[in-house]
Write a structure and sequence with these properties.
Elements lengths: L2 H22 L30 H14 L8 E6 L9 E5 L5 E4 L30 E11 L2 E8 L13 E4 L5 H7 L9 E3 L4 H8 L4 E5 L5
């Protein structure tokens, strides 16, 4: 082999050696970096449930449940009649004591409690022939069908309402306790002391009350 070919061969071998060495020492693969975690948006606090206007009366109803003990076999729901409100307002509330949810209805008061028909209850009475509403704790009794259709008897458990059953103070339906009546006259009509509600709502009201629960009526200004 002459010197020129030898030099050419040597240079070729050197280049091949350099290429092989470079390939053998290739840069290690770049590992992907984990993505930064996305910021967790703050959880908005649930809005506080507004305190119902009848809350203080509901406290009295709870106290009545305890006071009368076993008089109420059913203690999951109570009825509240808030006579601090005018008759144009939905002032009967049937409250689920577990969830706090309530269904609300128009309800009458007695003409003897509002002689001038102002739409506001001014006084209570437990007297016979007073035609007035009475206050305190009532136990819901059996349903019956009478002069006003499907109705529910009530037993008064306090000294200020213990004549309720003898006075025939009941829950019944009446056309003068409807939204149409209130829209026309600005108030409900008056009963003779009964808790009258809209006729089409009687099944719902009596179904929610049922027999053996508390119906409590009152005003904060009256003990």
């Amino acid at each position: 082999m002459d010197r020129r070919n030898f030099t050419k061969f040597a240079l070729s071998g050197l280049a091949f050696s350099f290429l092989s060495d470079s390939m053998g020492r290739a840069a290690p693969p770049v590992m992907p970096q984990p993505a930064a975690p996305s910021p967790v948006p703050p959880v908005a606090a649930a809005p506080a449930r507004p305190t119902p206007r009848y809350a203080a009366l509901l406290d009295r109803a709870r106290a009545a449940l305890d006071q009368h003990g076993s008089a109420f076999p059913l203690r999951d729901r109570v009825g509240i009649v808030d006579f601090d409100a005018p008759s144009k307002d939905m002032r009967m509330h049937i409250v689920d004591l577990v969830s706090g949810q309530a269904n609300s209805y128009l309800v009458s008061h007695g003409r003897g409690s509002d002689p001038g028909h102002s739409g506001w209850l001014h006084s209570f009475s437990n007297e016979f022939n007073s035609l007035a509403s009475c206050r305190g704790a009532f136990r819901t009794e059996a349903e019956y069908v009478g002069q006003h259709g499907r109705s529910m008897r009530l037993a008064g458990l306090d000294p200020q309402n213990n004549n309720a059953e003898a006075r025939a103070i009941v829950v019944h339906g009446a056309d003068y306790v409807t939204e149409d009546h209130v829209a026309t006259w600005g108030k409900c009509g008056r009963s003779e002391g009964c808790f009258a509600v809209a006729p089409h709502l009687v099944p719902q009201v009596l179904g929610l009350l049922g027999q053996g629960r508390l119906l409590y009526s009152g005003k904060l200004g009256a003990a």
